[in-house]
Design goal:
Layout (H helix, E strand, L loop, with lengths): L5 E6 L4 H11 L10 E6 L5 H13 L5 E7 L2 H4 L5 E4 L15 H18 L5 E4 L4 H13 L9 E3 L2 H15 L6 E2 L2 E3 L7 E3 L4 E2 L2 E2 H5 L2 H13 L1 H9 L5 H16 L6 E6 L11 E9 L2 E4 L7 H20 L6
Parallel strand pairs: 1-2, 1-4, 2-3, 4-5, 5-6
Antiparallel strand pairs: 7-10, 8-9, 10-11, 12-13, 13-14
This protein binds nicotinamide-adenine-dinucleotide and (2S)-2-hydroxybutanedioic acid.
Nicotinamide-adenine-dinucleotide binds next to helix 1.
Length: about 325
């Protein structure tokens, strides 16, 4: 018997990430090739015409799994009964800006959307925040949503998967190993240049990749800055922020969360439970494994002095961002 459709809400549906994301979701790349979906598309009133155009193109693909579409400028409609919410809609940064410079402008979006999710989404909803600064926006949405008592903090996540994928690619190239052979990467912390891409545990066909590369200066002076500043490098090259790779990471994140990571580690920005000394509630990149629609933090990793210093640096930035939005949280 055919599965019941899953309701997927996507904000910023008329934007550039939206345009890379929607067609892949409708083709089954996110929730499975046997899983019908209903797309609930939110964008601003002035973008509704463009959303309609995207919907026309979705229709023209005749996707067998596309069981319905809704376009709206009302978050309460967009998030109604949603089982997956991709919060993409927000202003992107331009050249010379840091992601946290967007906080004042974008934060309010996530108070409104957090309230709508808290009241109207499915109680088991999986929320991924992509709009920047995504960790703190996810924190805002979570804090507001849980006040309504229907959804839990664990339902809210931020996107570190693009950083994870970027780091994998850099490591594959440096070690001359296939990207698919690399296991056990972690990107700790904030989706910002302070993030700590940690490959101390990474293996490739049983070999430790850190030992294979054996170049601490490369780690510090090339790898970490390249991964941390990749978003800015793309803005510089394209004149626009990353879109297809961001959409790809969003699909990877939700697919693994919903369908399981088969024991592999993936990085998700999740509300801390206090693990590794990260204060509870902060949305922080952790290594997780996923099974049956739940994620679990990989425990017991050794944190050496260099790692602790990096993890604290990115945490401090998140604490500052949190302090900057406390007035919005009432
Ligand atoms: N976390 C990540 O790894 C990552 C990667 C790439 C981009 N981003 C972020 O994703 C966001 C979107 O990027 P983009 O390139 O698609 O931008 P874009 O400007 O092309 O599209 C944004 C869309 O959001 C809509 N929007 C704005 N406010 C909205 C609201 N309140 N409700 C619903 N829709 C709203 C706009 O009308 C527009 O259609 C940016 O904040 C960008 O920085 C994050
Ligand atoms: O860097 C940006 O502003 C966009 C995005 O967060 C990215 O990492 O590419």
């Amino acid at each position: 018997m055919a599965k019941a459709p899953v309701r997927v809400a996507i904000t910023g549906a008329a934007g550039q990430i939206g345009y890379s994301l929607l067609f892949r979701i409708a083709s089954g790349e996110m929730l499975g090739k046997d899983q019908p979906v209903i797309l609930q598309l939110l964008d601003l009133p002035q973008a509704q015409k463009a959303v309609k155009g995207v919907m026309m193109e979705l229709e023209d693909c005749a996707f067998p799994l596309l069981a319905g579409m809704v376009a709206t400028d009302d978050p309460n409609v967009a998030f109604k009964d949603a089982q997956v919410c991709l919060l993409v809609g927000a202003r992107p940064r331009g050249p010379g800006m840091e992601r946290k410079d967007l906080l004042t402008e974008n934060a309010k979006i996530f108070t409104v959307q957090g309230a709508a999710i808290g009241q109207y989404a499915d109680p088991d909803v999986k929320v991924l925040v992509v709009g920047n600064p995504c960790n703190t926006n996810a924190y805002i949405a979570k804090e507001i949503a849980i006040k309504f008592g229907r959804v839990q903090a664990k339902n809210f996540t931020g996107m570190l998967r693009l950083d994870h994928n970027r780091a994998l690619s850099q490591l594959a190239s440096k070690s001359s190993r296939d990207v698919s052979s690399l296991k056990k990467l972690v990107v700790w912390g904030n989706h910002s240049p302070t993030m700590y891409a940690d490959y101390r545990e990474v293996t490739s066909n049983g070999d430790n990749v850190k030992n294979l590369i054996n170049d601490e200066a490369w780690n510090r002076d090339v790898f970490l800055p390249t991964v941390g500043k990749r978003g800015a490098a793309i803005i510089e090259a394209r004149g626009l922020s990353s879109a297809a790779s961001a959409a790809n990471a969003a699909i990877d994140h939700i697919r693994d969360w919903a369908l399981g990571s088969n024991g592999e580690w993936v990085t998700m920005g999740i509300p801390s439970d206090g693990s590794y000394g990260i204060p509870e509630g902060i949305i922080y990149g952790f290594p997780v494994t996923t099974e049956n629609g739940e994620y679990k933090i990989v425990q017991g990793l050794e944190i050496d002095e260099f790692s602790r210093e990096r993890m604290t640096h990115t945490l401090n930035e998140l604490l500052e961002e949190r302090d900057g939005v406390k007035d919005l949280l009432g």
